[in-house]
Amino acid sequence: MAETPLTTEQILEAAEDVLRRFGPAKATVVDVARVLGVSHGTVYRHFPSKAALRAAVARRWLDRAHAALPAIATGSQSPDRRLRLWLEALYGAKKRKALDDPELFATYSVLATESHEVLDEHIRTLQAQLAVIIAEGQDDGIFARDGDPLTLAQIVFQATGRFHDPVYAPVWSAPNADRDFAAVVGLLLRGLAAR
Amino acid sequence: MAETPLTTEQILEAAEDVLRRFGPAKATVVDVARVLGVSHGTVYRHFPSKAALRAAVARRWLDRAHAALPAIATGSQSPDRRLRLWLEALYGAKKRKALDDPELFATYSVLATESHEVLDEHIRTLQAQLAVIIAEGQDDGIFARDGDPLTLAQIVFQATGRFHDPVYAPVWSAPNADRDFAAVVGLLLRGLAAR
DNA sequence: GGGATGACAGAGATTGAAATCTGTCATCAC
DNA sequence: GTGATGACAGATTTCAATCTCTGTCATCCC
What we know:
The structure is a homodimer. By secondary structure, chain A is mostly helical. Chain A folds into 2 domains: 8-47, Arc Repressor Mutant, subunit A (Orthogonal Bundle), CATH 1.10.10.60; 61-192, Tetracycline Repressor, domain 2 (Orthogonal Bundle). Chain A is built from 10 helices and no strands. In chain A, helix 4 crosses helix 7. The longest helix of chain A is centred in the middle third of the chain and has 25 residues, at 116-140. Chain A is elongated, with a radius of gyration of 20 Å. The interface between A and B is medium-sized, with 24 and 24 residues. Chain A binds a DNA duplex through residues 2, 5-6, 28-30, 38-42, 44-45, 48-50.
């Protein structure tokens, strides 16, 4: 029976499975153990608490959902073009997931929201990518040189919040959402531009 | 007893009172009637439903909370300065209320959110005020002339959402909130400016 | 007649007893 | 010794019985 020594990875897989099926409100550690065919005590050898397990699932999901972004941030196109592409990719990925499977998206949004730490770190990672693009734009003379890149990255991230914060998921399918997104990004790029 | 013929205004006053004391989850029409010393059937002579009563309370509150804004929008200062002042007044009013009495603020946020219609109309009113400022800025040559004022108003409103949408109330007391607000507004004004 | 009432049906909320879950740990199996 | 188990205490959730609320309307009162 114990042919394979249960891995953390398997537990995460099972936990995702249970969350997908039962949703964040009903998923229990006992359910996860049942899927794996072990006792729930075993799950507690790998994770100190249910919250830690859910946080790990959230981290995995966030990383996977935004796997394409770093490549865009360090791409070969001009910084202004890259900034637009990066924000489009972020909005696009969120929007696609929210429309494809709203229930699953809601589940993961709950996980992310409850795992404060994980979410904060994820956001810091995203803002750091934005900061790289902005810094290169400043070096190239495409963007105005006043203002530190990380602060500007935070500002751009905040100003585009409506297009990546899950609380706004319902408006992403509104008729004007894409037009509004493009307009906000356009205005921010104008604001960033050197004159 | 029936010296005064019960007015809609009195009912709204009583409803606010009950909402303040019991919160949005517990406040009932029977409570409101009790405060007024009438039967709850009487309340239904003035409002077709509990939802309509709550919507009327929400409208009153939103109008009162933002009573100072129209004067700023039509003020005598330069449009760019007025735009900044107007956004500061909006953020400031929200922030003050949220910090002064978080519970009451949460109560009214619930009312506003559940009264879709009322909230949408209120937002349209606010955006129309912003549009007036922007249109004057375009006429004066302070703002770039491309883009229609109402669309630009919507874009500015959306980009500053983090500083007026009640879902973000918890971050308004963060150490950098005011700095971030000023930076977002600064970037947007740069984007709006004629070159 | 205009305005208020309170009894009523159906919908929705409350409550507390029973069931389930979380997290621990002494024990077991290899 | 390493890793898994399952019994357990305390916390949390469920569920069904009960109670309260919403919205209507026939009736009442000035």
